[in-house]
Amino acid sequence: MFHIDLEAGKILDWAWEVARKYLASTSMDALREKARNVDAEAHYNIGFMYYGGYNVKKDYAEAIRWWLGSANKGYAPAQLALGCAYHEGIGTLQNYAEAMKWYSKAAEQGFTSAQFALATMYVNGEGVRQDYSEAAKWLRKAAERGHAQAQNSLGDMYFHGYGVQLNEAEAFRWYQKSAEQGYSKAQLSLRYMYEYGLGVEQNLSEALKWWRKYAENGDAHTQYELGGMYALAHQDYSEAFIWWTKAANQGYAPAQNSLGSMYKNGIGIRQNYSEALRWYRKAAQQGNAEAQNNLGMVYYNCEGMSKDSLEAEKWFRKAAEQGHAEAQFYLGIIYHVGDGVMKDSVEAEKWLRKAAEQGLAKAQTGLGFMYYNNVFARILTARRDQKADARDQSEAIKWFRKAAQQGDSDAMDVLRQLGESW
User: Fold this and answer.
1) Residue 386 belongs to domain spanning
2) Among 21-30, 158-167, 179-188, which stretch is predicted with the lowest mean pLDDT?
3) 192-239 confidence digits (pLDDT tens)
4) SS3 string of 292-315?
């Protein structure tokens, strides 16, 4: 279902910022004189004095009283403010019907923000029966007068065929108008249109340009994806480092993990184990399983520090419990050899099996060796059990075969020695 998030409270906050600048440059005596003369604009601005608490105690209900006086005199900005207050339930009970009434009054005067607000009511079915055609009509009115968000939403309607006939070229046209005004969602849509040749000839350079513009607005996930594109598709690790750093500094865990790997491996930046550890830890502490596994590997492999098996086990376990196959494998190995923990074959088998069942070839090989070693252990201790031997050998061959089918050379060698195919 198509939906537009109006965020009426943010409209009021934006209008308050405008009003605050006006109030700061205006004599209060002059404003009160205008208000006494029943000046609609003065009543509107006094309403914002109460909304923002400017030289008076903040009082939303009093703000509404002043806006109502202004709105009843036909002042469109006050009508929009009143609509937003009813829409969000600010200073009054939420009332979509009242919001609709005041948005309509302002929209009919050509006030573009109200036209967009009215369109969202029709799209979302708030205070009125859902009507995409009517929504498209009001979006077009606002879009044609340069309202960037309306242009983007009209593009969405053309792209999906809501209230208008589906038309990718028309969707592209409106996305472009909105994007060129700096509206971030339209920039992302424009990137998509160029990338896949929807409504416009495919142009990957243009797609990248708009992707960068969207990322420059500060969206951490997009910055992370953009860094990944530079690293994987272009092998431009310096550019990847720049974008991953931007996202990592916003606390985005996948980017922090990627940045840790760049420092660890000296890709795109000089190798620095301390920095690698710092970024891995930031991501790991947010619950990022890949970073938890990487942190475990740093401690396990003594990379830039002394080996710390207890820390390795801790972070491998955190990742393993989230289903990270490699972490499950290393946790199984730690318990198998008793590295920093009590040797525990049951725990070892449990974690190796979890990793093997996810298709990790080295875990499948490791599990195969565990079963095969069970047979040898019984031979060496003269505790032969034909049923147990047959079962363990069958399990060993099964897991060796799975690993060999993925190209694992150790598993292939064992199967050759046993005269088994894969």
Assistant:
1) 364-422
2) 21-30
3) 999 999 999 999 999 999 999 999 999 999 999 999 999 998 899 999
4) HHHHHHHHHCCCCCCCCHHHHHHH
Q: Measured on CA atoms in the order 199, 203, 208, 210, is the torsion positive or negative? A: negative
**Cα–Cα distance, 324 to 208 (Å, whole number):** 32
- Residue 144: CB partners within 8 Å, gap ≥ 6? none
d(CA 186, CA 180): 9
Together in a domain, 47 and 97: yes
CA dihedral 204, 208, 213, 214 (to 10 degrees): 90
Domain ends where: 104, 128, 145? 145
Backbone angles phi, psi at 321, to 5 degrees: -70, -15
Query: Which among 375, 369, 370 is positioned nearest to 387, based on CA atoms?
Result: 375
Q: Is 173 exposed, middle or buried (0-12, 13-18, 19+ CB in 10 A)?
A: middle
What pLDDT shows up at residue 272?
A: 94
Report pLDDT digits (tens) over 302-339.
877 777 888 999 999 999 999 999 999 999 999 998 98
Q: How many domains does the chain have?
A: 3
Backbone angles phi, psi at 421, to 5 degrees: -95, 170
Chain position carrying tokens 């207890």: 310
Long-range CB contact pairs, 257-264, < 8 A, 24+:
257/283, 257/284, 257/288, 257/290, 257/291, 257/294, 258/224, 258/227, 258/228, 258/231, 260/291, 260/294, 261/294, 262/237, 264/294, 264/298, 264/303
Distance in angstroms (rounded) separating the CA atoms of residues 148 and 316: 48
CA atoms of 375 and 407, how far apart (whole Å): 25
Cα–Cα distance between 34 and 163 in angstroms, integer? 45
In a domain, 170, yes or no: no
Distance CA 16, CA 45 (A): 9
Long-range CB pairs of 97-106, under 8 A, 24+ apart, other chains included: 97/127, 98/127, 99/8, 99/126, 99/127, 100/126, 100/127, 100/128, 102/71, 103/79, 105/71, 105/74, 105/76, 105/79, 106/76, 106/77, 106/79, 106/80
Cα–Cα distance, 43 to 81 (Å, whole number): 12
